[in-house]
Design goal:
Distance between the termini of chain A: 72 Å
Strand content of chain A: under 5%
Radius of gyration of chain A: 21 Å
Order of helices and strands of chain B: HHH
Radius of gyration of chain B: 18 Å
Shape of chain B: elongated
Strand content of chain B: under 5%
Distance between the termini of chain B: 68 Å
Oligomer: heterodimer
Number of helices of chain A: 7
Number of strands of chain A: 0
Structural class of chain A: mainly alpha
Helix content of chain B: over 70%
Shape of chain A: globular
Helix content of chain A: over 70%
Chain lengths: 175, 105
């Protein structure tokens, strides 16, 4: 009976968080003020972080909050404050046929995804990382990252260095 | 005895698909470059959710590692992209993506 209550609680959390994330992401793309978009983006990211916790990946959930909600959205908010976007606020939304057709095709693809997901449950070779082994999540991820995936990890370091240098050079005042 | 079923992976995948489609519609319809950028981050986030879902239900660590790398690339993209927006605003006084058509013919 206790497990039943636990799973019921998980269902409640999942349904609530899923609803909030969908509503928040709809608000992200409909708000006129970009600051509001950025703040609703934070709400969506936090909801998805809760979903990661439900999926037994606390490491990715914490990284999500720190990197996405903490760093990236912070950067976006800073850039919005730096730029004077008053004229952008007043520009009207024009109805262009290419946009309508593009949105229609996107929704069509969504129905394709939903049909595929409902029609056939995902199967595949299951690996050795069971729930018990993932209980010490950070340790497991770190081990995999520094043994099997150490080369992509180093490439990521080079990518981040190049991105920092590129950002500094781009935003340097031309002399 | 009445047993509550656990949350199926299909629900997570459906949520991920819905979030991705909302991101696509945002990219297509919005004209402010920063909101387009936020929509792209939304799409990356939805893909991460799919990775973690499959990682959990196929009991593999690869999805978690992939999500980690996607986040690193998103951070790099944010740094460079926002620097480009600042520079564009400095030279053209706008970040409306309809007015930025230097590479279009």
């Amino acid at each position: 009976m206790a497990e039943n209550f636990g799973i019921l609680f998980q269902w409640l959390i999942f349904l609530g968080v899923a609803f909030v994330s969908i509503v928040a992401s709809l608000l992200v793309i409909t708000r006129k003020n970009p600051i509001h978009s950025a703040l609703f983006m934070v709400l969506t990211l936090l909801c998805v972080a809760v979903l990661y916790v439900l999926l037994h990946s606390p490491f990715i959930a914490i990284i999500q909050v720190i990197v996405y909600a903490g760093a990236i959205v912070m950067l976006i908010v800073f850039v919005i404050m730096l730029l004077d976007l008053e004229t952008e606020l007043r520009s009207r939304l024009k109805i262009v046929y290419s946009k309508v057709i593009g949105g229609f095709v996107a929704v069509l693809f969504l129905f394709g995804i939903l049909y595929t997901v409902v029609a056939k449950s995902p199967t595949g070779q299951t690996g050795s990382y069971t729930t018990e082994k993932m209980a010490s999540d950070v340790k497991t991820v770190g081990e995999a990252l520094f043994t099997e995936y150490v080369f992509p990890f180093e490439i990521t370091a080079i990518l981040l260095t190049a991105a920092i240098i590129g950002a500094v050079i781009l935003s340097k005042k031309r002399t | 005895m009445w047993v509550v079923p656990t949350i199926p992976p299909a629900l997570y995948l459906m949520l991920s698909g819905i979030l991705f489609t909302i991101g696509v519609i945002g990219v297509l319809t919005r004209r402010n470059a920063i909101v387009v950028f936020i929509s792209i981050e939304l799409m990356l986030n939805a893909v991460n959710l799919t990775f973690i879902t499959f990682s959990r239900f196929l009991q593999s660590i690869d999805g978690v590692i992939f999500a980690f790398f996607v986040m690193a690339v998103a951070a790099a993209e944010a740094a460079v992209g926002l620097a480009i927006f600042v520079m564009l605003y400095r030279s053209k006084e706008t970040i409306n993506v309809d007015d930025i058509n230097l590479l279009k013919w």
